[in-house]
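ZP: hey, is the 3-acetylpyridine adenine dinucleotide complex queued? I don't see it on the tracker
AM: it wasn't, my bad. submitting now with these inputs:
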Amino acid sequence: MREPRIAIIGAGMSGICLGALLLRAGIRDVVLLEKNQDLGGTWRDNSYPGIACDVPSRFYQFTFALNPDWTHRYSPGAEIHAYFEKVARDTGVADRVRFGTTVVETRWTGAAWSVTTDDGVSAEYDFVVSATGILHHPRYPNIEGLDSFAGPAFHSARWDHSVDLSDKRVGLIGTGSTGVQILSALAGNVDRLLLFQRTPHWVMQLANPEFRPITRRLHRRFPAYDRFSYHAARKQIESLSPALLHPGKTRRFLTWLCRRQLNKIVDPELRAKLTPDSQPMCRRLIISPGYYDAIQDPTVELVTDRIERITPTGVVTDGVEHPVDVLVLATGFDAHAYVRPMRLVGPGGLTLEHAWADGPRAYRTVAVPGFPNFFMLMGPNSPVGNYALTAIAETQANYVLDWVQRWRRGEFTTAEPTAEATDRYYREVDAALPDTVWATGCDSWYLGQNGKPELFPWAPEQHKVMLAQPRDDEFHIVAG
Ligand code: N01
């Protein structure tokens, strides 16, 4: 067996997943290049009050490292971060991470990838896998005067824990999944909370019960029960896929449920302000145990007038200044910056910037024509809408592992998807997209620069089937 040299860029959830699978398969020459000083990616960056995962914890975990000890149906962020750290430690991945190392360039030498990091060091690898995450680059709003604000102001993914909010007037901009979780945690715990909403989002209010000690003991005692619970939670989430993919009774049912839940808002004027004019799930459906209660808390005020500008002391809408002491920007992420800002240069000098001039595209979510032995986790059109990203990462990581195993056996030296196969795949994607709920007319981070949803237009199960094994007929393969 040949011993491949593999660089994984990023030690977040998906990088840890691939690292663990490679090490478990006995592949030792693996390094994870992580620009931060800690593991966990999004679960490291996001530590705002109220952070949790809105996918059930029984499903939001790796099948090879089930955790019987989840505390809640939707466990808090710190617990999830600790879970990924534990997986990294237990599998040996943690020992393979080079922290504080930013990849600036990955260049094909003719026989391997030369990866250059910001410390000026270059090293060669047979495979490079980008695991740089999808919701990684904070998006700061382009609002006049933002920099002039005199008090603390920070993005939700850069929470300043040194600021005591308890006696403050907090201005919160953004009502996506993050804004909703922050509002739910802060309502009643700060002096005043002004929520600036540009567009109302649909919210599904679901309870978040704590698992009792006996439940945890049973999961610990009976691994088969733990596995059963994983698949039961998976099946439950997958049963909702039809609502996303096609018009029909599941979509009608969820629409009815979301509308019905809005009736929890007592004041008709507030209810009207919170009622979206798009279809539920067109933007990512927000799951929250307590948003509709929190927003009716007397300390909360919803402001729906357009933000004109920000002054040193507050936020101005329609000529009225709303004084605030602290500004929180829950304004989302640039979800289309896959791989970048790292420079990727393939054979013949082809850059990723050039290959993606019309927007990011990937063969079956994982590879790009023109870039041999290069793979992505959570790449363009991955099934990221209200599904467990852990499961997607595992599918993609297993696919990468298949290629690596074949390389070890000497079956090839380089492999890259053909442009024809990628074009064919995108014709199928484009034909399927119009039926999806994401194409029913709303703006969100799901949409790419061409206005089309950058999502997987089939059931997540289909993604697994699609990546079950490499298809040689869709690759340029140079024999080993
Ligand atoms: O970001 P978003 P997010 N002026 O892009 C508003 C995942 N996630 O961080 O709706 C005023 O959804 C913007 O307004 P509008 C999940 O996948 C998961 O909340 O565009 N407002 C919107 O309200 C999620 O989808 C969990 O009109 C401005 C908000 O900011 C993804 O992260 C938890 C503005 C941005 O919403 C992103 O969620 C949290 C401006 N100039 C997040 N610019 C889990 O539990 C932007 N906005 C797994």
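AM: back. The CA atoms of residues 278 and 441 lie 7 Å apart.
ZP: great, adding it to the tracker
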